[in-house]
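Predict the 3D structure for this chain.
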Amino acid sequence: MKMKGFAMLGIGKTGWIEKDVPTCGPLDAIVKPVAVSPCTSDVHTVWEGAIGERTDMILGHEAVGEIVEIGNLVKDFKVGDRVIVPAITPDWGSLEAQGGYSMHSGGMLAGWKFSNFKDGVFAEYFHVNEADANLAILPDGLDPADSVMLSDMVPTGFHGVELADVQFGDTVCVIGIGPVGLMAVAGSALRGASRLYAVGSRPNCVEAAKAYGATDIINYKEGDIVEQIMEKTHGKGVDRVIIAGGNNDTFIQAIQMVKPGGRIGNVNYLGSGDYVKIPRVEWGCGMGHKTIAGGLMPGGRLRMEKLASLMETGRLDTSKLLTHRFNGFEHMEEALMLMKDKPRDLIKPVVII
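Done. Predicted structure below.
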C-alpha cells in the first residue's frame, strides 16, 4: 500500500513523493495526522543542510493524530484513539534513557527520529516507536490545532526554562520570541520569574510575549541588547538567560548579560557554523561561575500528559502561537515556506488534515 508525503529530496530541495505505508512493530503504532505544523528545524534541515544530506526523507515532527494500527504488545492505546505525538520519541530501554538522557538514546540527539533518521509526520501515515511510552491521549475538549504545539514548541521552550533553572523571583532574559521563545517566556512566568525580559521586535510576537508574562521588551533594532539589559538592571545583569533564537554569536551576548553564578539555557538549533564563541573576560577568565547548558527537549508520554494538563486547567494557552491555519494536506508546502520566509505577521502555521 502506497502513501504520499512531503519530503526533503536533497539539500535545498523539497517536493511530494510516494512511499510504502510504514509497517507496525509489536510495540509500535501507525498514526494518520489530524493536525501538523512545520518548524524552523525543518528549514535548517532542508536549506542549511544542518544534519547533512537526506534524500527523499518525509519531513515534519509536530503532530496530533489518530491511531490506525497498533502492535500486539501495545497495552494502553487502541485504533481510533486521538493522540499527541512528541517530536522526540526515545528508545526507553536504552542505557542513555536509564541514565536520564532519553533524548540521546542510541547516540547524541538520536531520540529525535522524525525527519532525522526516519520519515516524519508530513505523510498520510507515519510510524511511532514504543507507542505506550511515546504517545499521549489527546484530552477531550482540547483543539488539535492548539495541541500540536505540545509536540515541540511547548516542551522545547519549557526545557529552556529547566536548563536555565529558573527559580522564584529570578530575573530572566529570553532571547528570541518566536514560538519556542514565547513558550520559554510562559514557562519562566509559571516558574516564578520576577522581571522577565523578552528580546524581539515583531509586533505580534511582542504582544504575545506580554500576554505570556514578559514585563519588559528588548528590541534589538533599538540598540545593543546587552547594553539595554544592563541599563534596566542597573549594571547587575540577569540571573538567567534562555536562548531561543539568534545565532552562534548570541552566546557572547548571553555571557555578557548573565550574573556570576547565573545560568544560560540554550534550546536554539544552531544550523550552521563550526564554533560557538565564549568571551573570555566576561566569562570570568573561565572562572565566573556562568554555566551554559544546551539541550534537546525530552520526549515521551509523561511529558505530553503533564503539558496537556496545563492546557486543560487553563494555565497555558497555546492559541496565541497560531497565526496561520490551513485546511487540507495539500497546503503543506505553503505552510513550510511560511516558516522559511518568516513574514512579519507569522508566529506559527498549522495544517488541519
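The mean pLDDT is 96.
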